[in-house]
Amino acid sequence: PTLRLYRWSPPCLSLGYGQPLSDIDRGRVAARGWGLVRRLTGGRAILHYDELTYSISLPADHPLAAGSIVTSYRRLSAALLEAMRRLGLPAAAEPSPDGVTLGAVCIEVPSNYEITSGGRKLIGSAQARKHGGVIQHGSLPLQGDPGLISEGLRFTNEVERAAAAERVRERATTIMASVGQVVGWERAAEAVIDSFAACFGITMQPAHLSEAERIALQTLRNSRYGSAAWTERF
Questions:
Q1: Is 199 a catalytic residue?
Q2: Long-range contacts formed by 184-190: CB under 8 A, 24+ apart
Q3: pLDDT tens track for 17-41
Q4: How would you classify the pairing of strands 12-15 and 2-6?
Q5: CA nearest to 125, candidates 138, 116, 134, 109
Q6: What is the DSSP pairing of strand 51-59 with strand 115-117?
Q7: Which of 125, 114, 145 is nearest to 50 (CA)?
Q8: What is the pTM of this model?
Q9: Which of 16, 30, 69, 205 could form an SS bridge with 43, CB 3.0 to 4.6 Å?
Q10: Catalytic pick from 106, 115, 142, 149?
Q11: 3-class SS at 187?
């Protein structure tokens, strides 16, 4: 079992597994110097910048992965909620509202047991189960403008773009907006690590990728996640 915490440079738009590439304005993405990837999990577009991103990978038979996706979401949300408490945020994890129509932006509406603060989405997460393993990953925005993602999406006109950006700002938030002060990446990472250890009674052991893992990483990058055939598949 591995908990990985990371950040992005340069900023990057990630498409959900089955999201159409036509949602993205590739010219605007390139003009801003953003990357573009397609992730293994579902959902809609996310702009990764000025955030802490987490992923936890587990064998499918691990106790933390037991039950349905929603059950394990709820279990893992306990550690994320504890991390927010340690950072001084008023946060909650609730079932998702029914009857919600999703647009191209992933952070507009919380899914089951994702983390909200002040009624606005804070930590978005997604999970996939394949090949005997489970991965759940998500993003915690530290500061910045949640509506910036609209700059990389395709709209009929600029009025629609501005309206979409404002809608995202109304529905999503950041740590800085929630607590009124800057929380650095290192401090947020420490809170997440300590909370996973405390909530699940485990000892965290820092480690680097093994040589075999580095080879597998490069292979996957070349054959899938870094290839146009993968990113442009829908």
A1: no
A2: 184/142, 185/7, 185/52, 185/142, 187/87, 188/52, 188/83, 188/87, 188/140, 188/142, 189/5, 189/52
A3: 999 999 999 999 999 999 999 999 9
A4: unpaired
A5: 138
A6: unpaired
A7: 145
A8: 0.87
A9: 16
A10: 106
A11: helix
